[in-house]
Amino acid sequence: MLLSLMKAWSALLFTLTLSLPAAAVTQPDGTVIPTAPGCDGGQPTGLAAVFSCICEQPGVCNIGVPCASETSCDDGQNGTCETTMWHEFNDNTCIPSNTSGLDPQADANVVPETFSPVCPMTFTVESRGTAMFRDIFGWYNVNSSEPSADDLHVMLDCNATVGDEVVLDINSEPDYLGGEIGFFLASPESSSGSTCGNGDCCATIDRIKAGEGHVYYSQPQFNPDASGAQSQIHLLVYDSKIFDHKFYFAWEDIFGGSNNDFTDLVTSVGGIECSGGGLPCDTGNIGMCAYGVTECNAVGDLVCTQIYTGSTETCDAVDNDCDGEIDDDATCTGDSICHNGRCVNSCTSGEFPCKDAFTVCDFESGLCVPENCVDVNCNADEVCRDGACVSPCDGVTCPWGQTCVGDVCVNPCDGVSCATGQVCRGGTCFDGCGQCSGASCEAPLRCDTGSGECYDPSCDPGCAAGQHCNNGSCVSDCDGAVCPGNVACVNGACQGPGTDPDGGVDPEAGAGGSAGSGGGPLVDGGADAATEGGAANPYAADETDDGCGCRAAGTPAKGGMAALAAFALGMLFARRRHG
User: Fold this and answer.
1) Is-above-0.85 flag for pTM?
2) Does residue 217 belong to any structural domain of this protein?
3) pLDDT tens readout for residues 85-104
4) Comparing C-alpha atoms, which of 82, 65, 164 is closest to residue 123?
5) Structural domain contains residue 511
6) Is residue 498 part of a domain?
7) To the nearest 10°, the Cα dihedral for 322, 324, 327, 331?
8) What tens digit of pLDDT does each residue of 157-189 get?
9) 3-state SS class at 569
10) Local structure of residue 155 (DSSP, 8 states)
11) What angle do CA 428, 434, 440 make, to 5 degrees?
């Protein structure tokens, strides 16, 4: 999601001279773009003048009149506008010396190049400057190659004038293929340059198909005058300082460059986000403080914003206090011990015996272990397999839609109940994909606006339980799966003792878990093994046990830390099936 620039910023008055900014955007010849304001008919021109007339209040412009005297200068404040321009005494009476707010040079960007359409978008013509060409503007589906003319979808034609607007609901467009989109401008420029082709200054897609005119893209590598690092820039992107979720696109429409004022077509686009927002990310911190979500900042770069803060350590297999240690200082009641994020009873008293694969009680730890794991002390981030300490999930490939946590394959959304209009992603509830703040659908997935879920349109009808869509075919969720302990995968779930024919775990059999004496990431957040089912495991506890000291793991706690543990790993893959 975009980092919204607070409206209060517009009240922060800072004087900017139109000099070279520290991070200026330049053309290959070194020209800083856009160029400084000009004058036409006694009024300032250029992007600063355009932005000064984009305001919360209609019909006003924040452009001050020339100073009446050395001590009497109009401050230009007539409303809340993107930019304010005002004069100094004895300066150019047409072109104000000072600006504040959105600065055309200092705030200019060439990114983002692609966008994620999350809700209906409103496109508005803000200016056509003094351009001779009557350009057209629209969108296209993003892929690895230059869009074909058939994939250029016009929204603002050559007759659109300032104030004209059109709403695009991309998810309802039959030509939308899912995923990201880009934007284009098409001009009617002749092959000889700087004149209208065949004397006609109105651009159309048919003329483009006939070889008349040029198309410039938000992805500049596809521009007709592109030449690597020396490519001419045709599009500058600005993030609004007074409106949430709004960008401005400022285009230069002459092949090879012209006066570089970037007012040939200026459009605003509301309700849009840059590509990649709303996905899980690693903040670079440790423990639960590592979990973040991607957001688009003011310059179009994706940043990872931390979403959890440190808290008191509890027995849940999560580094709650972000000190690099899992469950350190976590306490349990009575003689229970904290293991794999659960407070479990010790097997040393004989009251909770071990059975089957858990044939031996490790009296040092109080846990049931395979015989060859007795007295094997693994680090907190390891598990014991066949007498050796290994990293949890080493060599494990979980069934489709699941992720390996603590040597157990889980779907972090199992058991999570979301509110109406929300969907589960990685154990966390998000607004559905059809909403402005909703989860994104990555190509080739499309958004089912009714359910808010993403689906693959290449499989119609949808796939049965235990299957998923892959390039138009329904394939088993078990394809390529290598379950922990090399147990079988059936109906999209790893099997183990106590597993029922439908791929679940018999609650009476106890929950599965990692087979070792070390710690591991959270799976069940403290579920009672006698009452909660769980992911399957090659080892099982005595069916009569009630919280025995085995490597137990249950289902993710609803809205609890189980969802957090799986968030960064499973979010992209925990999509519900369509159909």
Assistant:
1) no
2) no
3) 999 999 999 999 999 999 99
4) 164
5) yes
6) yes
7) -70
8) 999 999 999 998 887 899 998 888 999 999 999
9) helix
10) E
11) 55
